[in-house]
Please model this.
Amino acid sequence: MNANAVVLVSGGLDSATTLAIAASQGRQVHAISFDYGQRHYLEIDAAKRICRAAKVVEHVVFSVNTAIFKGSALTNDIPVPHNRSEAQLSHGIPVTYVPARNTIFLAIALGLAESVGARDLFVGVNAVDYSGYPDCRPEYIAAFQQMANLATKAGVEGEQFRIHAPLIHMTKADIIREGLRLGVDYSLTHSCYDPAPDGAACGECDSCQIRLRGFLEAGCTDPVRYKNHP
Model:
């Protein structure tokens, strides 16, 4: 096994768990995060905290011009939905979808991976808990892996890239249980799409609702601060 791996770390619960899974396999982790003008900018600080705690080999924060991401509530002056029902959460693609975000981020992570000799990339996408995002599906991950091996010198020369999405079929509660088993400190993470000025999570956006439900179902308490805690 090539010990080097690149892990995409957003600063949220899922990516922190994914990083812990990669580290538990003995990987030498090169972490990468993205500053793309997201309104929940606090996740960048969270990513830095998570990477320091995990003692990664390096942590790259890559800046992407937010001008390319139009029509998303995470990057534009569009209200972030609050208090959506379970039926609404599980139907359609939400306005918080950022156009082609995972494709852009994985492509940049692939460049880092090839340059540091890593052939394994870890990403914390999840297709179970009301995701709604097309770039979180298993078939998307499989397609990107195929593309990675067609588009790179390493892939063409037989050094195959593998895209690992260890959380893709897990519920949020299962993810939390696995993270706690691996020693993840979830107080370091940030998941809220619409945080208060003091950094408290809103408790009402899709991400907060899914996270809070996950902790409830896992039988434990979420350690982050909430402005509104249903």
